[in-house]
Every structure is written in C-alpha cells, then in structure tokens.
Design brief:
Elements: H1 2-17, H2 33-61, H3 63-68, H4 74-77, H5 80-106, H6 110-135, H7 139-149, H8 152-164, H9 167-181
Helix pairs in contact: 1-2, 1-5, 2-5, 5-7, 5-8, 6-7, 6-8
Length: 182
C-alpha cells in the first residue's frame, strides 16, 4: 500500500511542481519534465514487475505452504496451485494497472479513472468470473482465471491512455490551475 501511495504522491508532486521549476533530480541529471515523468512511470512499472515475478515464483513453487498459513483443510489446499496459476495469468496487468491508473488520477482525469474502476469491477471481474466459472461450466479454475483476466479491463485502458492521450498537456493545465490557487 505504501508503494501505491508513494507513486501517487510522486506523480501529483511532479505535475504541481512543473511550472514552479522544482527539480526532482540533481542539477547534472535530466531536466526535461516530460522525460522525468516517463522515467517515474517506467521505474514504477519495472519495480512492480520485479515484485510480482518474485512473489509469483514463490507462490507457484510453494502453493500449499502459502495457503497453509490460512488453513489446514486438505480440500482447500488442493486448490492452491490452481489459484496461483490463475493469478499468474493476470500478473502482467496487475503490475502495470496501478501505475497507469495513478497517472490518470494525477493528471486530474478522475472521470476516466472512475469509469475504468467500474468497468474493472462489473465487466472485468464479475462478468468474466461468471462467464468462465458458471456459464461455461469450467468450475473453480474458471472462477480463478475469470477473476484474474478481469484485471486486463483496467490495465488496457490505462495503457492506451498513457500511450495515446495527450495527458502531458492536461497535466500542465492542472499544474497551472494549482499555481493560480496557491
């Protein structure tokens, strides 16, 4: 939770301080603000992927031990590997969606952020879980995979926003507005 909070704060600070010419780095390093934000987003995604890969490897190697923290029931422990395989399917989206959604919130597009959040819950998680697990009758594995495929409903629009929408200009307008009110 601290990582997500820190990432949001860094993006918001960057946008607010752009017009004030405050520097995030030492004077001998990069001074281009657009490049700075791209580096923040890139490093955030890199760190998220590293953490996701580390924990997914642990969970896939020792699934019963991980589930054993919460229960000793053998029937539940049998689902451990299937659940973690389902999680691994959604891992790339989980590693990127936080960063992209933080950027959307930081530049002030809260309406888009809300739409993505609702789509993630209703269309992504609930609909895909019901479709794969119940309608297609894939059982528990369908429920696990459906839930984790739903994460892409949040990650893909966030990535499209980052790569295709002119968020740099929108972010600068927000920075100008905050400078006038400060």
């Amino acid at each position: 939770m601290k990582i997500l909070y820190y990432r949001n704060i860094k993006l918001i600070q960057f946008i607010k301080n752009y017009k004030r010419k405050k520097k995030f780095r030492q004077p001998d390093e990069c001074q281009n603000p657009k490049q700075e934000l791209k580096k923040i987003v890139g490093s955030s995604i890199t760190i998220s992927f590293a953490i996701q890969i580390f924990f997914m490897a642990l969970l896939l190697l020792f699934p019963k031990t991980a589930f054993g923290i919460f229960t000793n029931d053998e029937e539940v422990l049998e689902y451990a590997l299937r659940w973690f395989i389902g999680m691994a399917i959604g891992m790339p989206a989980m590693a990127t969606m936080g960063t992209f959604n933080s950027l959307i919130t930081a530049v002030g597009d809260t309406r888009i952020s809300m739409i993505i959040g609702i789509a993630d819950a209703l269309i992504g998680r609930i609909a895909s879980t019901v479709l794969l697990g119940i309608v297609l009758n894939l059982g528990a594995m369908g429920l696990f995979v459906g839930y984790n495929l739903g994460v892409y409903i949040s990650a893909i629009p966030g990535a499209i926003y980052y790569f295709c929408v002119n968020w740099k200009r929108r972010g600068l307008r927000i920075a100008e507005d905050t400078d006038q009110t400060a």
